[in-house]
């Protein structure tokens, strides 16, 4: 199978490509490297440094290379809420503007699209530019599915952590921030009161959900109908407070800083459709991950 991954040099994209290559697929990545890293490139994958927000894909100069792909995993985006306040235009260009170009190409080539959604759309979609653009992207997928018959599915991510996560810059997640601070001997910075709770999901589980969803979408007839046009919540079904994450690092200095705007107080997946329809079974636990990968190694 030929697979196109947008945002393939990023955090989740890198882990997805590693899995796809391991499974024996031919993989192509398109990424503008705004947050993706060259060092994430995997041997065997064909990488193209292109901006998806350009007016049309044939302007990208990669149409011949991506001709004949069987499925697209559309992961490209500018992640995180805080940077979206600083760069709303860039967030939009990396979001809806790029997504409609991907969908247009998929429409003309009759190619299924799996979209990397966000659990943040379960809250106030107007709380920040990032969430708003993720919400808009979902509606674009619904439009192209219903009007143009593009096979689509949405996998909403819940606070992903794991290998290849960013650990520097404004696009870090909380564990990436804690990882760097811990290794550098600096206090762990906790925003607000630290009692905000998150449903943290291991990146390997996220990748497994994406692969299961993509494989299922390619199955014709009855089973395809159970996946096509649907959305799936990829969250563990339990959550931890930020204080609990910090406590997992042991007796270590902590520093409380101002709360950040636009963030939900709690994320928690209670939807079991991914388990029922995809056979998805998340197994990661972030507290265990912290203790196995950071604390015991010091």
Report on the architecture of this protein:
The chain has eleven helices and 13 strands. By secondary structure, the chain is α/β, with parallel strands linked by helices. α1 packs across α7 and α4 runs parallel beside α5. The chain is globular.
Q: Roughly how many Å is the radius of gyration? A: 19 Å
Bulk shape: globular
Compute the number of strand runs.
13
Average residue pLDDT: 92
Instruction: Sketch the topology as an H/E string, one letter per element.
Output: EHEEHEHHEHEEHEEEHHEEHEHH
Distance between the termini: 42 Å
Give the % helix: 25-40%
| Major sheet characteristics | 7 strands, parallel
What count of helical segments does DSSP give?
A: 11
Poorly predicted regions: none
What percentage of amino acids are in beta strands? 15-25%
What structural keywords apply?
alpha/beta, seven-stranded parallel β-sheet, 11 helices, single chain, two-stranded parallel ribbon, 298 residues
Write the layout of secondary structure elements.
Elements: E1 2-6, H1 11-22, E2 26-31, E3 46-49, H2 63-66, E4 71-74, H3 82-86, H4 88-109, E5 113-118, H5 129-148, E6 152-157, E7 160-161, H6 174-183, E8 188-191, E9 197-198, E10 201-202, H7 203-217, H8 221-227, E11 230-234, E12 240-241, H9 242-247, E13 254-257, H10 273-278, H11 286-293
Parallel strand pairs: 1-2, 1-4, 2-3, 4-5, 5-6, 6-11, 7-10, 8-13
Antiparallel strand pairs: 9-12
Short summary:
39% of the residues lie in helices and 17% in strands. It is an alpha/beta fold.
């Amino acid at each position: 199978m030929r697979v196109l991954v947008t945002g393939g040099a990023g955090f989740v994209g890198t882990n997805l490509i590693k899995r796809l290559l391991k499974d024996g697929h031919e993989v192509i990545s398109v990424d503008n490297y705004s947050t993706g890293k060259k060092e994430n490139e995997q041997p065997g994958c064909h990488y193209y440094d292109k901006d998806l927000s350009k007016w049309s894909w044939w302007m990208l100069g990669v149409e011949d290379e991506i001709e004949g792909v069987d499925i697209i995993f559309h992961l490209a985006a500018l992640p995180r809420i805080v940077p979206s306040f600083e760069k709303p235009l860039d967030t939009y260009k990396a979001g809806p503007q790029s997504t409609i170009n991907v969908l247009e190409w998929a429409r003309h080539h009759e190619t299924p699209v799996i979209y990397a959604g966000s659990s943040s759309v379960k809250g106030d979609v107007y709380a920040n530019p990032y969430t708003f653009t993720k919400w808009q992207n979902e509606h674009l997928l619904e439009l192209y599915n219903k009007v143009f018959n593009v096979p689509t599915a949405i996998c909403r991510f819940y606070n992903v952590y794991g290998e290849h996560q960013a650990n520097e810059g404004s696009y870090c997640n909380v564990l990436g921030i804690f990882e760097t601070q811990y290794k550098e001997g600096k206090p762990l910075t906790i925003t607000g009161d630290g009692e905000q709770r998150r449903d943290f999901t291991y990146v390997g589980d996220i990748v497994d959900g994406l692969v299961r969803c993509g494989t299922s979408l390619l199955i014709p007839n009855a089973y395809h109908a159970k996946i096509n046009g649907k959305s799936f919540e990829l969250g563990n079904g339990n959550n931890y407070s930020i204080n609990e994450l910090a406590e997992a690092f042991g007796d270590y200095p902590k520093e409380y800083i101002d709360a950040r705007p636009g963030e939900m107080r709690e994320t928690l997946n209670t939807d079991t459709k991914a388990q029922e329809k995809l056979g998805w079974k998340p197994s990661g636990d972030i507290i265990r991950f912290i203790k196995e990968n950071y604390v015991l190694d010091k």
